[in-house]
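Re: weekly structure request thread

Next one in the queue (113 aa):
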Amino acid sequence: VQLVQSGAELRNPGASVKLSCKASGYIFINYYMDWVRQAPGQGLEWMGRIDPEDGEADYARNFQDRVAFTVDTSTNTAYVELISLRSEDTAVYYCSTGAWGYWGQGTQVTVSS
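Done, posted below.
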């Protein structure tokens, strides 16, 4: 199993960002994809998850209004889009599947003017 995430992003406050997580080595639609983030000096924060089989997503309360999870089953890729970015969104973002057994390498998102 391998999860490969897209590269680092730098955005201005108020912008949006879309990150990808390409999965391989397992049947993509069989497992939820979770998204978590870790801000500098902070613990892991769960953002939510998506069921790749039907695209149904569950969002953590803190992210309900600003985050969207999507999947492309033709490429076995999951996406997270975060809008209205603010400095507090600066963090490393991770995808994870297999009940937390497998993790992507993380994507650094920096929000700064």
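The first strand starts at residue 2 and ends at 5. The radius of gyration is 13 Å.
Next request, please.
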